[in-house]
Amino acid sequence: MRYSLRAGACAAAVLGMLSGGSVPSYGAGALAIGKCAAYGYAYDYPSIAAAEAAARAKCSDGSCKQVVAAQKSCAAFAVDGHKPCGPNGYANASKLGAAQNAALKSCYKYGGKDCVIRAWICDGKG
Predict the structure, then answer these.
(1) What is d(CA 117, CA 124) in angstroms, rounded to the nearest whole number?
(2) Who has the most CB within 10 Å: 46, 57, 84, 87?
(3) Is 106 helix (H, G, I), strand (E, B) or coil?
């Protein structure tokens, strides 16, 4: 009995050492927003700057100037479904639902009539 307890404690200690510190923690993401519903995204990057650069580089038409950062959180982008070049909104929040709701509210606030979520990201550590 004593041997199995000791073996279990050793196994737990080894697992703790392997999972803590040996793997870098990536928890930064970004959503780049451009003209006419264009977007680019990046998540699980080591820094906000790296995530922003990657999101801009992935922009679907190269027009992405606005960037919404998400560090251990989520970001969402909404557009008017009938006028993709018209009103839009974006937001970040700790949970996906809250980010999407805020992005939709922002889209409606700026004149959208049929706002839909165009893109969203959550980093893997949020």
Answers:
(1) 20
(2) 87
(3) helix
**Interatomic CA distance for residues 29 and 52, integer angstroms:** 7
* Residue listed under structure tokens 């100037």: 65
The per-residue pLDDT for range 100-120, each reduced to its tens digit, is 999 999 999 999 999 999 999
Alpha carbon separation from 80 to 35, 59, 91, 109 (Å, rounded):
13, 19, 15, 11
Domain limits, the chain: 24-122
1-to-5, 9, 31, 63 alpha-carbon distances in Å: 6, 13, 54, 66
Coil vs helix vs strand at 62: coil
Q: Which of 67, 49, 7, 32 is nearest to 41 (CA)?
A: 32
54, 23 Cβ separation under 8 angstroms: no
One-letter amino acid for residue 117 of the chain: I
pTM recorded for the entire structure: 0.77
In whole angstroms, give the CA distance from residue 69 to residue 56: 12
How far is residue 98 CA from its own chain's centroid? 12
State the Cα angle at 17 between 13 and 19, rounded to 5°.
115
